[in-house]
Design a protein that fits this description.
The protein is an alpha+beta fold and 948 residues long. It is 35% helix and 19% strand. The strands form 8 sheets. Strands 11, 12, 15, 16, 17, 18, 19, 20 and 21 form a 9-stranded mixed sheet that branches. Strands 26-32-31-30-29-27-28 form a 7-stranded mixed sheet, sandwiched between helices. It starts with a helix and ends with a helix.
Amino acid sequence: MEPFDIETALKQHYGLDVAEQEVLGGESDHNVRIGTADGRQFLFKASAGSIDDVSLRWQADVLSHLADRAPDLPVSRLVPATSGAELVAVGSYAVRLLTWLPGTLFAEIEQHPPALLTELGRVAGRLTRALADLPVRAGVRSHHWDVRKAATAIDAGLGFVPDERNRRTVEHVLTWFDRVGATLDGLPTGVVHQDMNDFNVLVLPDGDTGVHVSGVLDVGDALFTIRVAEVAIAAAYAMLRKDDPLAAAAAVVAGFHSVVPLTDAEISVVFPLAAARLCVNATTWTRRLTTSDNRYAKERMRHTWPALARIVEISPALAEATFRDACGFEAAPAPAVTGQAAVVQGALTELDLTPRSDLYDDLDWSDPDAVTAAIARRRGRTTGVARHLTASLLHASQRSARAATVQLGVTLFPSEGEPLRTPLAGVVERTAEPLVVRHDRVWTCWWGLEPAVSDGMEIDAGTALGTGRDRVQVQLVTSAELAAEPPPRWVRPDDVPVWSRLSPDPSALLGLEPAQQPRMDVHDVVALRERRFGRSQRAYYRRPMNLVRGRGVWLYDEDGFGYLDAINNVSHVGHAEPRVAAAAARQMSKLNTNSRFIYEGIAAYAERLCATLPAPLEVVFLVCTGSEANDLALRISRQVTGREDMIVIDGAYHGNTTAVTGISPNRYKGRGGAGAPPTTHEVSRPDRYRGAYGHDDPDAGAHYAAEVAATAARLTAEGRAPAGFIAESLMGTAGNIVLPDRYLQDAFAAVRAVGGLCISDEVQVGLGRLGEAFWGFELQGVVPDIVTMGKPLGNGHPMAAVVTTREIADAFDTGMKYFNTFGGNPVSCAIGQSVLDVVVQDGLQAHAGEVGTYFLGVLEDLKDRHQLIGDVRGRGLYLGIELVRDRASKEPAVSEALEIAEGLKDRGVIVYPTGALDNVLKIKPPMVFGREHVDLFAEALDAVLLNR
């Protein structure tokens, strides 16, 4: 209908003065949002045909019944015409007017939290309950979208699907549907809405706690059918755009079950029906797009095929068991099975292939030949065995909702040519991979066998099934359907409790002794940490992971999830760097003592370290931590000058001893801080994003430094000239602040002019991290009087140093000995020299500069795409992303920063907020971080920002 005709009809039949019209989407009806002159809103629906059309009258029946039975349900109500009629004839159209429901389409919001999905299920249940006693109008018939007819609807459109992979996906789902089809007629029935898709559900914000369902639209597909259709359809569309579609569906099913309890038979068909409904959606709209350029059709298709590609990987048995758990059904006990014959001759040797196993310590686990050789050495002449439902580093994967890292079943590593025998009598159901044998009440699945039996063969316990191809995975399952599917070889850690019931441990069947007491998992570690550590010793993340291994730029947890480490400047040259680890082991096997003894390592390391620094920095004090280094530098500056006062930069952090906490505004001004000591004097952060002098000021460095000069002059005039000025060469904890040009030049000159010493804190950024220079202070064209260094020196080993001039070192020696038990010990010095070797030999300084430039460009591109990113900055491989809620006001996005860090962790990327306002994502990865890792980081961050 044309806008003029709509306006005329509404005036004539409803007495409304139309002020605005907005055309909405729809499959068959012409839907228009109406705004009236008095500020009200309505939904106008025009359908081609007569007002006596059975389907239109049926829809009116449904809406009237819901208004009577469940007036609190968020469903539109029919607005009668001035004549009292529910439908009005306007030319060739039947017209209805409905109340307007506020909200945003479910399809248009990026995140669907579990609470929203559960509420969606409850609303579906309330609709089903309210419609249960609605009589069906004569003439109302089934239609294309009836879930019972899914196979017919799919067949009508499958031939129009051009992509072979998509066709195979649909055909596989059809096997699921065919398996449950015969049971549908016996299920409970009733009238159901039957179309709670993501374009028919509205949501609204719910204060600070999230969103809630505010409306259910369009009863055009309402039908008398099986009751379970309602929850299956709601669950189907809830699975769209989900990293974990099964978890989304389970939340919907649990919500529905809390209102309308599902029977065992119903819950067994939910997942196949949901998957079939999405196949109907996909094939139908693909077919319709061949004859029209329908925008609504394209929107329906955009997410359906990708979702189906994920859903088809989910075992229906797993889905059913997951739904049963979500609804509180009691699990059936697994049958007890005892083996009657040995699977292999000889002894079994248990192999630990979990991520924490020492098998991998000196091994490249991505090299199959190296892994095979290592396993062969471990098992010797025996058969190796890897346990059921254990994570394996051999199948580790970057963390995601889909990553399957846990092996299902027991893996055997037999000697070449050794036959494997069935422990039970049975019938060979198939010899294609996997070989399946049906026994009494259970089935065994054998992966990796060269079969010596044939399909349909009856076999006795002890019959040779075949010989193994390197390794054989054996699974025990409790249902014919799961054996036929077949079960996956690897499963997600979150699904282990369910799989433990669907596929019991076959260890006893294979003659393997029970597993020993399991190691602590992440929950045990967190609980013990909370019991034995003070609350001030906080860990990263609300939902932490239990890390057990690192290599290069990757960290691995107990579940075999890999995490791209974008935060660990502690592991300067990479986690578990083999050359560094070997140097430590060699020296630990020879000598480790304290630095008052004479040994070559300490002298050689001091010489190597000084060679990286400009003159006159030549005297080394070796300590264990950056805090110790800065504490000693502070002590030296005060003792040598005979003064106490220090100039520091607001937001700086220099360590956790009592002395350096007093020169760390980040701590003494933060939560629980006691404020600045009287001897500490702050100057403004030289922050060109938030500070007084921005990127548009070419003399920003000089202007910020002028405050240092003014503070030094003031203190001198007050008779308390400063002992020194301490500055990070690039401010880390303050928010990854890059110092503007000339800042340190002018600041150092001003402090030295009044007799103070200048300290460069390189604990975070030294040893080539900034790319253009080995030490950060060199980028400012200065040489400090004292330089402190820490984290990078030992690649995770506790090492730090203070280096100063001979003149200052001699002035510090007043006769009192300085001694550090562990600083400069032989093992530390061997590690330090090895780290320097790796940095130089592998060209990591130049690498940091090249990759850092690329990284900064990628972050700039992300900034253009996402308004939440206010600023990106950095040098080399020390970068920051400042998040703001509004670019004009620069309101810090503090909670968002934490939320994004959690989201990145769940996608296998480690980064965390820092900064004076806790809104800067700090990026300081191991120096071996490459372009390919930058791309992984950017992809993950982009996805997290898009899904907020």
